[in-house]
């Protein structure tokens, strides 16, 4: 799921990029890993004139790859039916039409817009502003809308579907009183959650809050790294890493009494995961011999835990093995799970430091739903999520 910001209102610390370059890059690489659909979210503030320009550019660049619907959708097609398709998601342009209708194209664009229009001179410039809104509107496969005023944002329209976008803070506030309403809303509609604007350091929030309430699009900052980005990478290692993971059945079900899953009222333990950490190897090959300690071999220990619904969240750790490049722990842990379908097993190796600032030695996050019983070799990754050449753990998994 990709976000493209353009227009006069959005201000960021990054340099603008020509829209045509973004679109061509998406076209050329959209399906290099998976055939499943790519959703492009437009965050735009365009006058009708520039809506027309965007419509021409998108149509010409994507051609047959672009998914169009002849009428407003009453339900979303399945990802399986949309393979090799690109979908545009944004607000219908009506709200921009009125505010711009009294201005000329020269008055309504500023430097930001002009910079992104550098390569547009070779596009057909004959379409008038009066046709811009219909052209642009016809591109939109997934309509974004947030009801105004006193109307309930979680209201469900039986005749149409929509995408609702909330900041992480808005979601946190809503789940306190409307948890089941959010779950019910996401059974038919799409919910997109994005980081709050104050995260200038590109830090992230816990994606589990959105996932456990049925949110399909939980957007994270990809510029940095950290445990929440690792959890996201772990969740989407499921289903072959295609970028789509089936929502758990309990988030889709409605009981005969018209009740839905309540994230604040978790059921009993569904299964217990038993994890044994045997040994680790590979640091001697992938790291300088003085990386962890200048004068002696490292003192590694392993943190093992669950990222998931609050009732399942836990972290445990082995003892530190002193002065050993090939540590053997032979320690076992049990994790009772109430929602194993949403659980991600977190593994992190650290090198003990008496100063309290332990050195990083590798990490892996794995979807519990795809773990298989038996002894397994688990490759570890660096902070950015790239796999090390040699570092790995020998572990055993068992379900009770």
Question: Kindly, what is the distance between the CA atoms of the first and last residues, rounded to a whole number of angstroms?
Answer: 36 Å
- CATH top level of the largest domain is Alpha Beta
Q: How helix-rich are the residues, as a percent range? A: 10-25%
CATH superfamily of the largest domain: Phosphatidylinositol (PI) phosphodiesterase
Q: Count the beta strands.
A: 15
- For the biggest β-sheet, the strand order reads 1-2-3-4
* Element pattern in H and E: EHEHEHHHHEEHEHEHEHEEEEEEE
Q: Shape, please?
A: globular
Kindly identify the CATH topology of the largest domain. Answer: TIM Barrel
Strand content: 25-35%
Would you identify the regions where 5 or more consecutive residues have pLDDT less than 50? 5-10, 95-127
Domain C2: 256-382
Keywords: Cell membrane, Hydrolase, Lipid degradation, Lipid metabolism, Membrane, Transducer
GO molecular function: phosphatidylinositol-4,5-bisphosphate phospholipase C activity
InterPro entries: C2_dom (IPR000008), C2_domain_sf (IPR035892), PI-PLC_fam (IPR001192), PLC-like_Pdiesterase_TIM-brl (IPR017946), PLipase_C_PInositol-sp_X_dom (IPR000909), PLipase_C_Pinositol-sp_Y (IPR001711)
Give an account of the 3D structure.
This protein is α/β, with parallel strands linked by helices and 400 residues long. Helix 1 packs parallel to helix 2 (48-62). The strands form 4 sheets. The protein has a 4-stranded parallel beta sheet. A 4-stranded antiparallel beta sheet has the order 11-8-15-14. The chain has a 4-stranded antiparallel beta sheet with strand order 10-9-12-13. It has helices at 19-29, 48-62, 94-100, 105-108, 111-116, 132-137, 168-186, 208-211, 227-235, 283-286, and strands at 2-7, 38-45, 86-90, 140-143, 163-167, 190-194, 217-218, 271-281, 300-307, 314-317, 328-337, 344-351, 359-367, 374-381, 387-399. The chain folds into 2 domains: 2-94 and 127-251, Phosphatidylinositol (PI) phosphodiesterase (TIM Barrel), CATH 3.20.20.190; 271-399, C2 domain (Immunoglobulin-like). This is Phosphoinositide phospholipase C. One of its GO terms (biological process) is release of sequestered calcium ion into cytosol. It catalyses: a 1,2-diacyl-sn-glycero-3-phospho-(1D-myo-inositol-4,5-bisphosphate) + H2O = 1D-myo-inositol 1,4,5-trisphosphate + a 1,2-diacyl-sn-glycerol + H(+). One of its GO terms (molecular function) is phosphatidylinositol-4,5-bisphosphate phospholipase C activity. It is found in: Cell membrane.
